[in-house]
Every structure is written in structure tokens, then in C-alpha cells.
Design a protein that fits this description.
The chain is α+β, with helices and mostly antiparallel strands and 449 residues long. It contains 20 helices and six strands. α5 (103-117) packs parallel to α7 (152-168) and α12 packs parallel to α15 (325-335). The radius of gyration is 21 Å and the shape is globular. 55% of the residues are buried.
Amino acid sequence: MNNPIHALADAAASWQQRDLGESLSWAARRVILDWFATTLPGCALPPASLLAGALDACRGSGKAICYVDGQPASVRHAALLNACASHTVEFDDIFKDGGYHPGSPTVSAALAVAQDRGASLAQLHRAIIAGYEVGCRVSLAIQPSHYRYWHTTSTVGTIGAAVATAMLLGADAQRIAHAIALSSSFAGGHQQNLQGEGMAKALHPGHAADAGILAGIAAAHGVTASLDSLHAQNGFAAATSSSAGDWGAALEGIGDWTPITRMTVKNHGCCGHIFPALDGLRVLQAAQGFQPGEIVSIHIDGYNATYQMCNRANPLSAQEARFSIQYCIAAQLLVGDVRLAAFSADVLSREDIRQLLAKVTVAEDQALTAAYPKKRMARIAVRLRDGRQLSHFQKTRKGDPEDPLSDAELIAKYDELAGSVLSHEQLCALRETILYGNDLPGYVGLAGQ
């Protein structure tokens, strides 16, 4: 086997000169808009709000913007806090075939470095595209077994952030390869911290962005590492998955297609493993016209991650509720959708939601597990008081490449989420800069500051 780190680094470096064209530039703009949509609401919430005060003495000097407090900071400080905020309300993008949220760590790192260095918008786009290229392809090599113990956004996100950083620092392919190798040693974040009420999950991409920037800076300035770090018998893939990696799958089509064009934009503010059930239930209810009061029971058959991560029958916090298929189904039926409002304190405590979620059960379907992660599907069975038993097989998720959010739908998502924090004038100005401007997205003061 040829060394995959060289193929990945060559692919990343090629984005320094390759023609992006309108479609790739627009894909990068969509990714940045979606990053702001999910980041800004998280700026006012823990853990980012807690860390902003705790780490203020470590802010350092620099031109990167920490959106959590709206102030300039060093690149690592800004990237760490912004990435934590970006992962808090569970709306960040997904590379579904790799089970990976690249945006939170990669865009956080790239934007901070670009702002600090005064990079051009084209350089930012190229760095993000390259960071997505490498991170997403590494995720293909190690999934799905990696996800049993490791949080891909934390581990692989470190690599994506390192590549984006190295690109903005003008690294060539050799130094990008060393950035990948170095960052593979900095990667961490285990699955247990995705459970319960703790805040560690949102810190995962924060650490990934911070550590990735360290690796990218180090490599760009000549620090080296083992270039066998990804695929060797003691390397990253072997240590974190069931093999030394499926690098054939990871490198398939490299140079012909790039992952940023195959992203999932989240349409619900919860764990993506719940999406097929939510989408399928909406289809079933629209077709059959039943109301929540008519429901006796709802049963979901999903793939293993749906069952293992999202079977939470008594969520006590917003964080737990975002990973509870029972809660999210009840909220969709009674609130109308699973967006920011569904996880407010008053909705979390609603008795009608608690009564309805008790009627929801979930189990693993081995056939759906076998198709995961390339396919995210669910079987929904609803029993009504009049004796009817309704069923639906949901084969896709809204927002996936097979059923993407349109530009208008993405803009509406941005307006809703970012509009919960920004004034109307700020909201529109930032949107216009990201989608149609020629400058880096810069300072936008948060509402109320």
C-alpha cells in the first residue's frame, strides 16, 4: 500500500492552485454560513460562556475574533472557544459517510488563522476545502469501528484543523504531511463523554481546533513527525479502529470529487442519528393525519448508533434531550419542530411532552446497522387508539446529499439561529458578507454586549 499521508497531503496542497470555480466557492460559502448559524447561538451557552471567563487571562494578542465575547484574541484562544460554541446546539454540518462533523473544528481554526493573518477570502476557502478533504477522507478509512470508542469530530477534527492551518501558513505538501502526522498524536475524545449531562462533548471540537492549529503552525515552521502515523501498525488508524484503516475507500475518487460538495446540513437541532425517525414520522403524519392525542405507541427501529446513543427515556437536561429519540419525537409532535425552542427550559418541563415520550420505544435493526454509515434509515411504527397500526420506512434524511437543503432553506436556518443572537442589521450584514462579499467575515458584535 502506498503511504496515504502523502496522497492526502498532495490533495490538500493542490487546493492552493486549483481552479475552484463557482460551485466550489459556493460550497465553501455555504459551509461558512452554516458554521455561523450553529456557532452564534452557542456563544451565549455553557461551556463556551464559562470558558470565556475562565480563560480570559490566556486570551493573548491577535486579530482573530472570539465570537463568544466579540473581542479579538490569539488564534488558538478564538478557535477553541468558537469551536466549543459551534458544537453546543447540535446544528453543525455532517459528513455522513464518515460519521464526522468537520465544520466545528475546521472552520473555527481556519477562520481564526485567516483573520489573524489578514488572508484573502480565496485563501480561506481553499484552506477549508483542503481541511475537509483530508479530515473527511481519514474518517472514511476508520469508520464505522472508530465510533465505538472515539468521537470522530474530536479525533479527526484535529487533523482537519491542522491541514487548514498549514494551508493558510503557506505550507507545501511535505509540511502538510507533517501537520497531519503531528495532529494524529494530538487527537482525542472518547465516547463516554458523549453520555449523560456533562459538557465535555462541546469541548471536543474546541480542543481539536486548538490542537490542530498547534500542529499546523509547528509543521509549517519545520517541526516533523513520523509520516507513517496514519497507517502503520502502531499508527492512528490501528490505535482507534478495528484495522490499520481502509485507505482504498478513503482515497477513492481523490482528485475527482471533494468532500465539501457532499455535506449534510442539519435540519434539526439534535443528534443526526435521530433525523431519519423525525423525517419519517413527519411523512407518516402528513399522509395519515393523526394527532398526538390519538397515539398509543410509537416504535422506532434504527441502526446501532441510533439505539446506543439516542435511547434516553428520561432526559433531564437540554444536552440529554438533544440525544433522546423519545424526547425529540414527542417535541416534534407537540411543538412542531426540533429547533432551538424545543430545548428551552419551559418546553423541557412540559408534562404533555413527558407523557408522550413515555410511549416511544427504540430498537436496533441489524439490516439498518449493516448499511450504516453510508445510509441512515429508520422504520417507524405508530399504533393509534382507533386500532390502526401505521408504518413507514424512511430511507433518507432531509439535509443529506440525497435530499439536500436548498440555498433558501439554508439561509432560513441561518436567519432563525443567528437571528436569536444578532440584531436584524447584523444578521443581514454578516449573511451578505459570507455569501456575496469579497472580504473575510469579521467582527459582528453579539446582541446585548
